[in-house]
């Protein structure tokens, strides 16, 4: 691309008015780009605030159904559920994860039964149910891969049976996508989609989320033997290729803002449905600064989400989803 020199080319000509800027805008953010991660708790008509995520609440199922209805009416295509599990239900063997009547599965069914036109996504990982807070089963201090995969498959099948449209394996065990896909096919869940958390990094940006689901206290050690080293990029491409070959329909990069280079590379190299998770710590940074008046909350929210679209993402999991959808609809 060659460009005539100044003054034949003056870039400011096309920035002069809002109309001219709109004409040459390369990227658009719409409500259809949003997936809303929501926290579910037990009880009826109960809501409680998550202190490290200002504006985010855990909702009991009845209130979650109302919130899902509102999200659908705002044009948000998908909601992703994360359960706050009672400590009494956590164990080393994690059976509660595949209980057909666990909190997450009851929430999925309630949204389905209410006839709300929204895709329901669930999280496939053992951490909410694990007494030690890990995403896989721990034996003698080691997170054991293949046994974890067996547990994750049972969990995935229970979620599919409850009516989940999208399964989101966030556990980072090896071989789980293939095992889940095979089990889903053989149980007749041929239309259930998998959005693989393919490139999920061992990140300090997940802190507020672990508070929200009550896993911070439980977690022993860190997740570095299964989540990725933040220093790696080629490895992310290998993981994406692997998960696609095992039957993932969509892939995800997580966290989001510090990993836009990975999002961009994934979209360019694979050309598959690519999503990013703007995680709890990213939300907390923007929201916390906005609350103190240090940043313009509305503008940084929109700018941060537009950046994902510019990087090539097809959609973003973001706690801002309802707020940004209201703004885009206004
Ligand atoms: C756990 C899971 C995590 C998140 C989504 N699923 C945390 C973790 O891996 O420790 C983080 C989401 C966020 O920070 O918003 N399987």
Feature tags:
330 residues; alpha/beta; TIM Barrel; eight-stranded parallel β-barrel; two-stranded antiparallel sheet; 12 strands; 38% helix; globular; binds ligand PBG
Question: Care to describe what's here?
Answer:
- It is a single chain.
- The protein is an alpha/beta fold and 330 residues long.
- It has eleven helices and twelve strands.
- The chain has one domain: TIM Barrel.
- The protein has an eight-stranded parallel β-barrel with strand order 1-4-5-8-9-10-11-12, surrounded by nine helices.
- α5 links the parallel β8 (166-169) and β9 (193-200).
- The longest helix has 18 residues, at 145-162.
- 45% of the residues are buried.
- The structure holds ligand PBG.
Summarize it:
This protein has 330 residues and is of the alpha/beta class. It has helices spanning 18-23, 61-73, 103-113, 145-162, 176-186, 207-212, 234-246, 260-270, 280-291, 297-311, 321-329; strands spanning 34-41, 47-49, 57-60, 78-83, 119-124, 137-139, 142-144, 166-169, 193-200, 250-254, 274-278, 315-318.
Q: What is the strand and helix layout of this fold?
A:
Blueprint: H1 18-23, E1 34-41, E2 47-49, E3 57-60, H2 61-73, E4 78-83, H3 103-113, E5 119-124, E6 137-139, E7 142-144, H4 145-162, E8 166-169, H5 176-186, E9 193-200, H6 207-212, H7 234-246, E10 250-254, H8 260-270, E11 274-278, H9 280-291, H10 297-311, E12 315-318, H11 321-329
Parallel strand pairs: 1-3, 1-4, 1-12, 4-5, 5-8, 8-9, 9-10, 10-11, 11-12
Antiparallel strand pairs: 2-3, 6-7
The protein binds ligand PBG.
The site of ligand PBG has 11 residues, from helix 6.
GO biological process, one term: heme biosynthetic process
InterPro entries: ALAD (IPR001731), ALAD_AS (IPR030656), Aldolase_TIM (IPR013785)
Active site: 200, 254
């Amino acid at each position: 691309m060659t460009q005539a020199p100044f003054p034949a080319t003056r870039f400011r000509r096309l920035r002069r008015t809002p109309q001219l800027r709109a004409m040459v805008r390369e990227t658009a953010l719409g409500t259809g780009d949003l997936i809303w991660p929501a926290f579910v708790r037990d009880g009826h008509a109960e809501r409680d605030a998550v202190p490290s995520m200002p504006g985010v609440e855990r909702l009991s199922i009845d209130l979650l159904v109302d919130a899902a209805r509102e999200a659908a009416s705002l044009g948000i295509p998908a909601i992703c559920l994360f359960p706050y599990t009672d400590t009494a239900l956590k164990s080393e063997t994690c059976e509660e994860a595949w209980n057909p009547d666990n909190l997450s599965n009851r929430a999925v069914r309630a949204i389905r039964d209410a006839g709300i036109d929204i895709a329901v996504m669930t999280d496939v990982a053992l951490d909410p149910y694990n007494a030690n807070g890990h995403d896989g089963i721990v034996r003698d201090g080691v997170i054991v891969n293949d046994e974890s995969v067996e547990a994750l498959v049972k969990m995935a099948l229970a979620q599919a049976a409850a009516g989940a449209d999208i399964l989101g394996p966030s556990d980072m065990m090896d071989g789980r996508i293939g095992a889940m896909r095979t089990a889903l096919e053989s149980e007749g869940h041929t239309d259930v989609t998998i959005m693989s958390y393919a490139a999920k990094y061992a990140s300090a940006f997940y802190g507020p989320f672990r508070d929200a689901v009550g896993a911070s206290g439980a977690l022993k050690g860190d997740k570095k033997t299964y989540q990725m080293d933040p220093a790696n990029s080629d490895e992310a491409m290998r993981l994406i290729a692997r998960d696609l070959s095992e039957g993932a329909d969509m892939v995800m990069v997580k966290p989001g803002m510090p990993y836009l280079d990975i999002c961009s590379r994934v979209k360019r190299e694979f050309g598959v449905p690519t999503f990013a998770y703007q995680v709890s710590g990213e939300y907390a940074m923007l929201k916390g600064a906005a609350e103190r008046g240090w940043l313009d909350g509305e503008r940084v929210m929109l700018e941060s989400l537009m950046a994902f679209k510019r990087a090539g993402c097809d959609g973003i999991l973001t706690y801002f989803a309802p707020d940004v959808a209201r703004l885009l609809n206004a």
